[in-house]
Every structure is written in structure tokens, then in C-alpha cells.
Amino acid sequence: MRQKDQVSRQLPDKEERLRLFGSVKPGKKTKPVKKEDMADLQNKQADFLFKLDEVGITNVKHPIQINSELTPNQQSSIGSFTFSSTVEQSSKGTNMSRFTEQLQDFHQRNLLSFDLVNLKLFTKELATRLKTPDAKLEIEAPWFFERKGPSSGLAGLNHADLKVSVSYTAPDQYEIRVGLTGSVTTLCPCSKEISEYSAHNQRGEVKLEIELVDNFDESTIDWKAFLLEAAESNASARLHPILKRPDEKIVTEQAYENPRFVEDMVRLVAADLYESDQVIAFFVRCQNHESIHLHDAIASITIDKRVEH
Ligand SMILES: Nc1nc2c(ncn2[C@@H]2O[C@H](COP(=O)(O)OP(=O)(O)OP(=O)(O)O)[C@@H](O)[C@H]2O)c(=O)[nH]1
Q1: Where does the record place a coiled coil (predicted)?
Q2: Are 91 and 97 in contact (CB under 8 A)?
Q3: What is the CATH number of the domain that holds 116?
Q4: Nearest residue by C-alpha to atom 20 in ligand 1
Q5: pLDDT digits (tens, 9 = 90+) for 190-221
Q6: Which of 83, 97, 128 for a ligand 1 pocket mutation test, highest count of atoms within 8 Å of Cβ?
Q7: Which structural domain, as residue segments, surrounds residue 304?
Q8: Residue 11: inside a domain, yes or no?
Q9: Is 31 domain-assigned?
Q10: What's the gap in Å between 3 CA and the centre of ligand 1?
């Protein structure tokens, strides 16, 4: 292809261009520039009417390490973080910069991972930094795991979304909730029952959130793999990144042999969580992206084993 001759026009210099688009010279400045001379509104003490449950920052994106029992055993993901603490009635506000200072400090010490022992340390250090009796951390991030075709053994990566929330209260109390949202195949039992042949099926999104026992040992149980198994093993079939024809035949027949309503899904997943002595309380929700409707079907269940049900 013949290139056109380059056209070159003399533009105003950069400073002039910025002025052209509205930039002005700095005005006269009278307020202090040294930190110790600046007003510190957030640390003002008075009666500010109410104590606040949660003050902090959210939607903070940062790299985070995930260690996993499933391949790949170590990976970097992008976490979406929320940090907060309570604020006393006598305090005007929090020192927001300390949340991201703590994040950077943890990152530099190479401690930023989904390991609960590290996240507990993070909240305790955050409370010390904020000079508050409590601190809370929430992280959501995609997690990738290898999945092989049931016949061909051909592997690819699937992913699920992880969620961790750690609440610390001084001197040494933690509440830890972990969660996972993953996708499965569900085949409609009603459709299978009433039709001469076939049955409609769809992709179901299963969301699990659990509160773990205080002495939960993450070195012996990978909670991510446990939650994924609870979701997938109770579905009509699992999802695969690569399926050859013999694989496709297996998952199609498997789905037909294991039909599930959304109600069946949440009850079966709930049964697995109920049986686990590592789980104190849980929430399970299933949302089926229906293939014979424009709308979705949903079901959910919440059980706290400390309460009679
Ligand atoms: N409390 C509060 N801070 C805000 C709000 N909006 C922005 N800020 C933040 O205020 C921060 C600066 O205040 P501080 O973190 O208290 O700064 P500082 O007092 O110099 O920090 P320390 O040295 O830790 O005491 C910036 O990070 C702003 O993002 C808000 O609604 N409330």
C-alpha cells in the first residue's frame, strides 16, 4: 500500500495549549502547607450525636496472591477491597489514608494473600493503626482452577468468585466469613418428567457464604475447594472449558441423570454445609439463567447452627 505523505502542522507549545483549554496560573495561597499546621477535622473531639457502625473505603483494587489445593496452586488475582471500622460518638471521623497505608505496608511485606492467618493479622494491625477497638476487611477476587474433560482429560481454566470478610474486635476476637460464587449446569426435573424426549437445562449460579469455626485450620482444609465441591457435586453437571465429543456425551447424560430445580440445589448444598463441623452458619443461593424464559429462577436458604431450626 502506498503511504501518504505525512502532514505536519506547527501546534502552539504545550503551556499555551493548556491555557487555551482553560488552565490558569495558581492564585495567592494563604493556608498552611506543613502537616502539623493543618486543621485536623477528622480528629476533632465533641459530641457528634451517634456512634457509626462502619466508616472506611471501598472499591479498592489491588493485586492479591491466592494459594490453592487445586492447580494452579499459586496465582495472582485482582482483589476488590473494603476496609472499615466503627467511629465513636465522640470522634468526627476516621483517618482514611491509614487504610491504604496498611494495604501498602502489607503488600511490601509480601503478606497480601487470601490466607486467613494473614488477613487476621491485617485487621489487628489496622485497628492499631486507626487507634480503634475494631477493624473489618472484605475482599472479593476471581480464583482460577484447572478443570479436565471427563473423557479426554484435556485441561483448561475455570473460575469462581471468592469473598472473605474478617472482623476483628480487640483484644483477640475474630469473625470470619468466606464465600464463593460458581457456575454449574442444572437440568429441569419437571421438563424431563413431562417431555417425550429431552429436557431444558441452563447455567446456574450458586452463591455460598459460610461462617467458620474459631479453630478452623486452613492448613488442612482448603475452604475454596470445599465450597466449589459443595456447589458442583450437587449440580446436574459441572462446567468445562474444553469438551471433545466423548466428553460432551458424558456431561449431557450426567445432567439428564441428575435433574435439579433451584430448590433442590440449595437444599443439597445446604446439607453438605450442615454436615461439616467446620461451618457454624451459612447462606446458599442458586440463580438459574433459564433457557425457556427471559427471567431467572432463584432459591436461597440461611441456617445458623447456633440457633434452633
Ligand atoms: N474522614 C474522612 N476522610 C475523607 C473523606 N473523604 C476523603 N477523605 C480523606 O481524608 C484523607 C486525609 O485525611 P487523613 O487520612 O486523616 O490524613 P492525616 O490526618 O494527615 O493522617 P494521619 O497522619 O494518619 O493522622 C485523604 O485520604 C482523603 O481521601 C470523608 O468523607 N471522611
Answers
A1: none
A2: no
A3: 3.10.270.10
A4: 35
A5: 999 999 999 999 999 999 999 999 889 999 99
A6: 97
A7: 43-308
A8: no
A9: no
A10: 55
Q: Which residues line ligand 1 (CB under 6 A)?
A: 35, 40, 42, 93-98
**Rounded Cα gap, residues 100 and 103, in angstroms:** 5
Residue 179 Cα, ligand 1 centroid: separation in angstroms? 31
Nearest to 267 by CA among 198, 189, 162: 189
Q: What is the DSSP string of 246-258?
A: HHHHHHHHHHHHS
For residue 181, give the DSSP letter.
Answer: E
What predicted TM-score, i.e. pTM, was given to this entire model? 0.91
| Residue having the nearest C-alpha atom to atom 21 of ligand 1 | 95
Number of domains in the chain: 1
ipTM over 0.85: yes
For residues 127 and 85, the answer to whether their CB atoms sit within 8 Å is yes
For residue 178, give the nearest of 210, 155, 219, 140 by alpha carbon. Answer: 210
In a domain, 6, yes or no: no
- What is the C-alpha to C-alpha distance for residues 56 and 132, in angstroms, rounded to an integer? 12
Across 57-74, b (16+ Cβ under 10 Å) vs e yields eeeeebebbbebebeeee
Ligand 1 atom, smallest distance to 96 CA: 15
